[in-house]
Amino acid sequence: MEFVKYSLEDGNLNGCHNRFIQSPQVAYFVTTCDKYGNMNTTPITMGTCIGHNFFSFTLSNLHVGEDEWDLDKNEWKDGIKQSYANLREVPECVISFYGHDMIRESWIAACPVPKGISEIDVMGCTELPSTVVRPSGIAECPINLEAKVLHVHKLGKKWTHFVCEVVFASIHKDLDEINKTGPYAGYGMLNINPVLEVYIAHGTTPETSGLKLYYDTLDLSKIERCPEDIGYSADWIGDFEGWIRDEAGRGRINEAEIQRALELKKLWEVNRDPVKNADVKKELTDILKKAVGKA
Fold first, then answer.
1. CA 102 to CA 119: how far, in whole Å?
2. How far is CA 76 from the centre of its chain?
3. CA Rg, the chain, in Å?
4. What are residue 215's DSSP bridge partners?
5. pLDDT tens per residue, range 192-227
6. Is 196 exposed, middle or buried (0-12, 13-18, 19+ CB in 10 A)?
7. C-beta separation of 133 from 149 below 8 A
8. 250-256, long-range: CB within 8 Å, 24+ apart, which pairs?
9. Which residue has the higher pLDDT, 200 or 256?
């Protein structure tokens, strides 16, 4: 198998397409406010949930060198993203997930609306007063998560990573009910038909020659459960012995091989040096490959 290899250590793609690195991600709004209470809403796709209690997201072109503040104007320098400036003044935000029905509004929010003018108003949407944080949510968005900034990390020359804690959630009542009893119960935001940013490119005609975002949606009919003929039966991952015994129950290994696998696991845990304990590693690996049908 042949590979094309790229070095990214100098901070440049060096010919590698960014979509090999940045996968499609669900789009959402982040609403912040400045110290006067002026709202800013930004459509974002770079960020993800960490665990069950924290939501992490990144914003681009957020700082200019080390000096971000214009002393003469007594404000943030030109080129500083409003969302970044607001989060430094008021370290709180609302993350609002939207569905395919709000594609047009998301593009409006991405337009260069003057600083201090609310994109929520320009989009024709309705502010949803927050319970804990100062910025508002968006009433038309089925999911609004109020969050407080915990950490700010600058990455490279123009990126900043904000780590936030979600402290309050407002969910449309009908979505909450669908998630409990609908055909896709438990799927959460998949029930709002979320959109994923997949590409930024020029169109193919003179009328569409400008750069635009390309979106996709998920086909829920293609969601499938992990195969039942492999893995621990009683839980998602389980423990080693339970997993091995379940694989043996499917007829791929016998009781003697189970016992040998348990012995080898203990020997490997004592010394995980792949050179000095190479024989143990290989024998254990061979049994595991046989157990999952890959021998």
1. 13
2. 28
3. 25
4. 197
5. 999 999 888 898 888 888 888 889 999 988 989 999
6. middle
7. no
8. 252/290, 252/291, 252/292, 252/293, 253/287, 253/290, 253/291
9. 256
Contact 246, 291 (CB under 8 A): no
What gap in Å lies between CA 283 and CA 261, rounded to an integer? 8
Measured distance CA(105)–CA(43) in Å, rounded:
9
**Can you give the three-state secondary structure of the chain, one letter per residue?**
CCCCCCCCCCCCCCCCCHHHCCCCEECEEEEEECCCCCEEEEEECCEEEECCCEEEEEEECCCCCCCCEECCCCEECCCCCHHHHHHHHCCEEEEEECEHHHHHHHHHHCCCCCCCCCHHHHCCCCEECCCCCCCCEECCCCEEEEEEEEEEEEECCCEEEEEEEEEEEEECHHHHHHHHHCCCCCCHHHHHCEEEEEEEEECCCHHHCCEEEEEEECCHHHCCCCCCCCCCCCCCCCCHHHHHHHHHHCCCCCHHHHHHHHHHHHHHHHCCCCCCCHHHHHHHHHHHHHHCCCC
Nearest to 115 by CA among 69, 162, 79: 79
In total, the chain counts a number of residues equal to 295
How far is the C-alpha of 184 from the C-alpha of 222, rounded, in Å? 12
Phi, psi of 214 (to 5 degrees): -110, 135
SS3 readout for 5-26: CCCCCCCCCCCCCHHHCCCCEE
Q: pTM surpassing 0.90?
A: no
141-178 b/e with 16+ CB inside 10 Å = b? bbbbbbbebeeeeeeeebebbbbbeeeeebbbeebeeb
Helix 240-249 and helix 255-270, axial crossing angle in degrees, nearest 10: 160
CA-to-CA distance for 137 and 32, rounded, in angstroms?
Answer: 9
Average pLDDT score over residue span 32-37 = 94
